[in-house]
Amino acid sequence: MNEDHNSVNVGRDPARQRLRTELADLLIESGDLRSQAWRQALLATPRDAFLPRFFMPHSETGELVLVTTSDPEWIGVVYSNEPLVTQFDGDPGATHGVPTSSSTAPGLMLRMLEALELDDGMRTLEIGTGTGYNAALLCHRVGDKNVTTIDVDPAIVETARGRLNVLGLQPTVIAGDGANGWSANAPFDRIIATCAVRHIPSEWIAQTAIGGRILTTIETSLHGYALVLLVPDGRGSASGSFLRDAASFMPMRSHASPAFAQLRGRAAQTTTRRRSGLRPLDLDSDAARFAIGLALPDVSAFSITTEGGAGIYLGHHLDGSWTQVTDTGSRINVEYGGPQDLWAVAEDTHARWVRHREPEPSQFSLSVDAEGTQTVHLHTAQGPNTWTSFDAKR
């Protein structure tokens, strides 16, 4: 592993320990950190050991710039409650592009870990190793022999393993597709994903012990996000609620959207035109992107700008359906092709969402059956009703 481990050594000095204490105090004050067990884990685990380099927004341009141990602001940013990008385009040497790995904001990390209700010795699977910092916190809480962490990127895995080993931690660190879990160490008492998924992989349910928990983020087609905590029933099914805690993560690579050009290339050639009363901006809130996006499970959305104005492009992953919606300022133009009018689905679902007084993600729940059908329920004063349902195995 080619990186300077000087940060590991100095990460244990009194100044760094004081910074960890200040971060712990900050997270207690914000309500992100509530238990003594996780406070001890935070104090015992040097985040600086896992972040010798990262990217942060430039104060003037906003462009992500590289920060290393030689920069004076490095250590202060490491111990801030901020997410930090660590990789672009799956390339350890890239300094710009599409972010493909990061270190989660410590506050969100601790909220998720506390939501798992971990106890001593619980066998835990982490999906998305990243820097290795979250795995180190897990090792402190349940013991490194009880922790398995998996990441699709072999370079990330090698680096994280080295950082963990330098701290004397030896969890199972695997390079592989996290959607498949890791059956060799199953069953797990807890599974936590630090990446977003479009649906719950059946392997996660199969590899969770009865009474165990699965915590992950669901990302919808419109880039709405919500944490969901599921309890498997031991027969291939699982159910649970979306949490109030806000969270957004990079997608698990096997669940990532196809590229815009790829979707355009497979789009149906027919074109139908119409007008709409629904503006793309009507879907701009987090709650709307989540609720309306749930009804378009096999769709990806892209912001576009055309000569006619700004808008949105929707592309179906499977059947070639596409929709381009443009807001000219005076009217909403819709062009679409293929077997489905995707914007009509968005219109109908948005109207239903408004009728229900624009519910937040925490008003929904999720159930997954043994055949792969995933159903989202909206909970109202009259009781639960089905919001959307789709087959994740198709």
From TrEMBL:
Alphabetized CDD domains for the sequence: AdoMet_MTases (cd02440)
Domain of life per record: Bacteria
Entry's EC annotation: 2.1.1.77
Compartment(s) of residence: Cytoplasm
Pfam families assigned: PCMT
Any one Gene Ontology BP term: methylation
Key words of the record: Cytoplasm, Methyltransferase, S-adenosyl-L-methionine, Transferase
EC supergroup of this enzyme: transferase
InterPro entries, A to Z: Methyltr_grasp, PCMT, SAM-dependent_MTases_sf
Gene Ontology MF terms in the entry: methyltransferase activity
Family according to the record: Belongs to the methyltransferase superfamily. L-isoaspartyl/D-aspartyl protein methyltransferase family.
Family annotation (NCBIfam families): methyltr_grsp
Protein name: Protein-L-isoaspartate O-methyltransferase
Species this chain originates from: Tenggerimyces flavus
